[in-house]
Inverse folding.
């Protein structure tokens, strides 16, 4: 018996994941990292989908990155064996819970620090559970996001770690996405300068003896737009100690038709096997009240809009079996449950037709769906559950 078509069984709006594109992206990113000798701990906040975490780990990821302690709890519930918390752990109760998880064994954990207070929280929790927390010194920029701004701030945090028997300095962390949001030449120059500051901090730790000689120093950076720059800046030329480069790119797993299609290192001209957009949202034409305007039933409750509006990709005429490519249509605005679509008056689009929307920025589309069909050739082969 053939698997069901999503259009025969689901009312719009709904999101779908393309199974072949998803597998291509998993394999492509894994191969890219292996060829360059770097690790990947993809950011789990993109999907918050344990079944996708499992597939990322099966494709060679050495762990999953979390943004909050609640995400750490969810990941542990589903058996993720290694987690990097890409923020300072500033909640004593959560630090105590994580310390208990570490004490039970078979769990590798690290978190970022940028203050003496952050070190003290972890030292107290580690002392209660008789464990040692691994921490990564976060490097920030003036007027930026979190992270140490100055050499004196870095020294204060490093000294606090030296005094804390239950905290160990494992490496250096940062996020280059806070300094630039596009890949134009000026932005790339800014990104490289920031990454060079991470490298300088790491070299300082290695030469000062602030880290254990018997373990490689961890350097972690790399969102989904500049991971190639991270490799260029951090992965080679080390003479004063061994290092592990850990990328945290998360959006690669489903890619998109907007932000990352424009600015991912694994898309665009010259890329042999570019990432493929795997996540789309379908809506139905509710109204075409004038020749140059139609309205869909998919809006801000259903599709991301923080990094660009969705893109109409295909039309499925009412009663048809296969979608057809769509041109001459642009989403210009979203309400909670409506998409404003500007049309060439000659574009064929009728009330009741369905429209496939490409998204821009997967993170803020995933969090709108609890169950997403996984499809191949328009037929459901599985589902992906999310936990936001």
């Amino acid at each position: 018996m053939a698997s069901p078509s999503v259009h025969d069984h689901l009312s719009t709006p709904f999101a779908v994941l393309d199974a072949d594109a998803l597998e291509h992206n998993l394999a492509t990113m894994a191969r890219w990292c292996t060829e360059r000798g770097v690790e990947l701990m993809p950011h789990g906040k993109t999907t918050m989908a344990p079944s996708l975490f499992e597939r990322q780990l099966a494709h060679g990821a050495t762990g999953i990155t979390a943004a909050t302690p609640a995400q750490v709890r969810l990941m542990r519930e589903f058996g993720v064996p290694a987690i990097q918390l890409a923020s300072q752990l500033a909640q004593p109760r959560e630090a105590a819970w994580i310390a208990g998880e570490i004490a039970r064994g078979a769990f590798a954990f690290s978190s970022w620090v940028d203050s003496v207070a952050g070190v003290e929280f972890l030292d107290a929790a580690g002392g209660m559970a008789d464990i040692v927390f691994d921490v990564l010194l976060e490097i920030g920029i003036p007027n930026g996001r979190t992270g140490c701004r100055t050499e004196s701030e870095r020294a204060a945090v490093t000294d606090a770690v030296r005094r804390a028997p239950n905290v160990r300095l494992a490496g250096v962390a940062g996020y280059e996405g806070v300094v630039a949001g596009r890949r134009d030449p000026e932005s790339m120059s800014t990104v490289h300068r920031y990454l060079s500051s991470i490298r300088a901090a790491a070299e300082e730790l290695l030469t000062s003896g602030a880290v254990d000689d018997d373990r490689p120093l961890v350097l972690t950076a790399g969102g989904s737009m500049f991971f190639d720059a991270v490799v260029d800046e951090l992965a080679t030329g080390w003479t004063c100690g061994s290092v592990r480069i850990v990328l945290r790119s998360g959006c690669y797993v489903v890619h998109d038709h907007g932000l990352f299609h424009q600015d991912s290192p694994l898309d665009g001209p010259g890329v042999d096997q570019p990432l493929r957009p795997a996540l789309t949202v379908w809506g139905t034409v509710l109204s075409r009240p004038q020749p140059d305007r139609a309205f869909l039933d998919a809006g801000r409750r259903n599709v991301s809009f923080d990094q660009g509006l969705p893109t109409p990709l295909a039309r499925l005429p009412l009663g048809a079996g296969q979608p057809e490519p769509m041109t001459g249509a642009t989403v210009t605005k979203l309400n909670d449950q409506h998409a404003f679509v500007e049309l060439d008056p000659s574009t064929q689009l009728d009330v009741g037709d369905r429209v496939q929307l490409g998204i821009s920025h997967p993170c803020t589309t995933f969090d709108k769906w609890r169950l997403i069909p996984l499809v191949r050739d328009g037929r459901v082969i599985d589902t992906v559950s999310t936990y936001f």
Summary: The two ends are 34 Å apart (CA to CA). The chain has a mean pLDDT of 96.
